[in-house]
Task: inverse folding
């Protein structure tokens, strides 16, 4: 008989997803394509699953072109934000959405957001109130074991550094290693929008 302390915790396995886009003739976003790429065989590691260096190494070993991982996801209206780290976001806008990414960011945060563009690279700063809302709202899901500590680290980092905004509209595809629950949340958001 297994005692309570010996029961296995439910797992939230890593999945390898590819995120890409289809654009129409006017070069407007027509659809976001997300599909899971199957691992060849099983991969079991006796290590901390929240170790970013480990995820990058696993991604490289599996041939992921851009070994990225998402630690949290925020779904805000017509935007989904995959947090690649404390201050680097992959931002997806709903297919069919006519507003630019910059316009949508301003619509969501208004004067709580400052956008910066340098040599075609978009970055942003959020004020303290907007950061607190974003990190503590039900619109944001953390996928780390110690999410309270990670949230505090994110708040500290974001108060001192701009957020680098990446978009699937400016690249061919992104290949990301994420927890299964993050992929599920992203697919639900795509089905709603």
Result:
């Amino acid at each position: 008989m297994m005692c309570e302390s010996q029961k296995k915790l439910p797992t939230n396995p890593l999945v390898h997803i590819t995120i890409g886009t289809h654009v129409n003739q006017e070069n407007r976003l027509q659809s976001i394509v997300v599909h899971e790429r199957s691992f060849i065989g099983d991969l079991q590691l006796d290590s901390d699953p929240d170790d970013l260096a480990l995820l990058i190494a696993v991604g490289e070993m599996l041939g992921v072109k851009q070994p990225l991982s998402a630690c949290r996801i925020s779904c805000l209206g017509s935007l989904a934000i995959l947090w690649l780290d404390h201050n680097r976001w992959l931002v997806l806008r709903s297919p069919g959405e006519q507003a630019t990414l910059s316009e949508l960011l301003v619509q969501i945060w208004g004067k709580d957001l400052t956008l910066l563009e340098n040599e075609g690279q978009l970055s942003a700063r959020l004020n303290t109130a907007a950061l607190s809302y974003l990190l503590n709202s039900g619109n944001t899901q953390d996928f780390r074991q110690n999410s309270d500590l990670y949230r505090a680290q994110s708040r500290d980092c974001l108060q001192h550094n701009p957020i680098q905004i990446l978009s699937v509209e400016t690249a061919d595809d992104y290949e990301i290693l994420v927890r299964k629950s993050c992929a599920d949340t992203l697919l639900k958001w795509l089905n709603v929008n």
